[in-house]
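Problem: given the chain below (411 residues), write out its structure.
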Amino acid sequence: MEPTSRLSGIHQTILIVAVASAAVIGSVTGAVGAVLMTGAINASDLFGPFSGRDNAVMMDRHIADLIQEETATISVVDNVAPSVVSIIIKRPRGVSYQDQYQSDFFDPYDIPPALTPEEAGQLVEVGGGTGFFMSEDGYVVTNRHVVSDADASFIVVTSEGRELPATVVAKDAFLDIAVLDVGGDGYPVAKLGDSDNLRPGQTVIAIGNTLSEYRNTVTKGVVSGMDRRVVAGEYGSDEVIENAIQTDAAINLGNSGGPLINLLGEVVGVNTAVSFEGQSIGFAIPINDVKKVVDDIRQYGRIVRPWLGVRYVSLDEEFSLEHGIASTVGALVVPGEDAASTPAVVVGSPADLAGIVAQDIILSVNGIAISEDQPLGSLIADCEPGQTVEMRVARGNDILTLNATLGELGD
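Solution.
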């Protein structure tokens, strides 16, 4: 009989719960109906798309996403920071004094102090930049304009604080990129990503020697734009950069040459410039453009670049209309301000040997039309020294086909 009694008790419990539930539902229904009849609230306030529980779940997920992204950022910085270095620029004290007192603000009554030979030869810090190891045997990537001073010496400071004398191995004539060598072996190497996959809105992280004082400074932002054309420079040197990455991650003086990193811990750009005309506007060289430099150094010990040997102006509607030129696209071959020292076509160059002359308009290279997105310099840079390229050239009313065998450009 005990099983029967227990079962009866369960039935009673279920009945009681059911009755209680019915009573609650009835009271709630009545209350809601009364409120709706009075117009105090809208039905959507009670039966909207999300309940309080749904909102709580969404909030939990949002917090989880933030924690996950923060954890990813910390992990990326921890993994990449050891490969990032600070670059200290030093000059002989005598040279720095000479520059100071030969400036436009020189006061003839302010006589510079006399320096002994020992004092004049002392190295003093005059600036800094950033770089990162591209190989375990001590090659460091940085910006060309960071190491452009021929009178300067350069010291690489690792994330551990080791100071290593550095030698400039190569400077890229096309990109604002240079390579230093500190010797030794076993250095941590940054992993290179694919900058072609970058999209506006993607999260990126910059690490650099901010203001040449705050080493390994970390800033975070997004990719703001792609394929920007900017002029970068510090310490009296300017570089034109095509196809730059624009980011709102804070990039300050001293960050030049440091890595721009994605959340996978891959270097997707080399930080190179900051705009002083706006806020939160920085630029980086796409890492895919830098990979050839890295490969050349590893394979040849130098940067190998093709050379055509012309000076040109990229045509557009405004320029052509102003100068009465029929074509609105292409590369107009022209000399510099001093034609004697900057001729339109370098004597003995591949362009000269191919028959290109001043005022020619180069329309295409190997069947690829020259345009704003595909300037002559970029098309030639995609080729190799020793490669023969076919060019369509407009000369007056004639269209010519000329072949040029590219040379190798020296630094």
